[in-house]
Amino acid sequence: MLNLLMRVGVAARIAMALSIPVLFLLFVGAWSWWVSSATRDGMLDVRNRRLDAAVLALRMQQNVIQVQQWLTDISATRGQDGLDDGYKLAEENYQAFLSGLTGMDRLLTGNSVADAVLLKLRERVDAYYAMGKIMAAAYVDAGASGGNR
Question: Model's pTM, two decimal places?
Answer without folding.
Answer: 0.68
